[in-house]
Amino acid sequence: MTTHKTYHYLARLGNLIRAEARKTKPKLQPVQLEMLHYLSVCNRYSDTPAAITEYLGLTKGTVSQTLSVLESKGYLSKKIDRKDRRVVHLKLTKKGRDLLQDSLPPRVLIRGLEQLPQQQHGQLIDSLHQLLNSMQEAQGCKSFGVCKTCLRLKQEEKGFSCQLTGESLHNEETELICREHLTPKPPVTDKVA
Ligand code: SF4
Q1: pLDDT in tens, 163-190
Q2: Could you tell me if the CB of 132 is within 6 A of ligand 1?
Q3: Can you tell me the distance from the alpha carbon of 48 to that of 162, in angstroms, rounded to the nearest whole number?
Q4: Please, which residues have CB within 8 angstroms of residue 157's CB and are 6 or more apart in sequence?
Q5: Fewer CB within 10 Å, N- or C-terminus of the chain?
Q6: 76-80 and 88-92 as β-strands: parallel, antiparallel, unpaired?
Q7: Which of 187, 167, 186 is nearest to 43 (CA)?
Q8: How many angstroms is it from 192 CA to the middle of ligand 1?
Q9: In terms of C-beta density within 10 A (0-12 exposed, 13-18 middle, 19 or more buried), how is residue 84 classed?
Q10: Mutation test residue for ligand 1: of 41, 146, 164, 172, the one with most atoms within 8 Å of CB
C-alpha cells in the first residue's frame, strides 16, 4: 500500500512540475529544462553528453538532438576537452543561466513548500534523499552524488583534491554533483549483543 501511495504522490508531483515547465517563457520542453538544470548542478567531469544520457536515462539520439536545439537557441555552448579532443564539454551560456534563474525551482513547488510547516522541510529532504539512494542502488545506477560526500575527496592544506583524477578542486566545486561520485558505505553494525 505504501508503495502505491508513494508512486501516486511522486507521479502527480512530476505531472505538476512538468506542466509548469511547459509554461516557461521562452517555451521549452520539460526535457530541455531538465538538461539545463543538470548542467547547472554538475561538475566539470560530468558535463558531457554521455553523463547526461546516463543521468536522465534517455537514448543517445534524444540527448544529441535536444542538445543541438539548446545550442542553436543559445542556452549552451560546446567545448572540446583540452586533454582528450574526443570529449565535448557542455557549458551553460549567460542566456541559459538567466533562463534557469527565472524558471527554477518551479513556482508550483515554491508555493507548495510554503504551505508545509518549516520543521517538516528537513525531514522531507532526508526521506527523498534516502529513497533516491535506495532506488539508484536497486537499479545499479551511479549515485551522481555531491562531491563533498564522495569517498575520493581528499582534504588538502589549501582546499581539496580528487583522488581519482589527481586534480585540485575549488571549494565551490565540492558542492556539485559528479558522475564518478563514490558513496561511503554505512557503518557495519555489530549484531552481537
Ligand atoms: S572527489 Fe569524487 S565526486 Fe569529487 S570530483 Fe572526484 S570522483 Fe567526483
Answers
A1: 999 999 999 999 999 999 998 766 555 5
A2: no
A3: 19
A4: none
A5: C
A6: antiparallel
A7: 167
A8: 35
A9: exposed
A10: 164
> Cα–Cα distance between 189 and 180 in angstroms, integer?
27
Is the CB of 178 within 6 Å of ligand 1?
Answer: yes
Q: Is the separation of the CB atoms in 147 and 43 below 8 Å?
A: yes
CA distance 31 to 58: 10
Residue 86 in contact with residue 98, Cβ under 8 Å?
no
Between the CA of 127 and the centroid of ligand 1 the distance, in Å, is 24
183 class by beta-carbon count within 10 Å (0-12 exposed, 13-18 middle, 19+ buried): middle
Cell 581519482, located at residue: 164
Output the pLDDT for position 122: 95
User: pLDDT tens, 5-23?
Assistant: 999 999 999 999 999 988 8
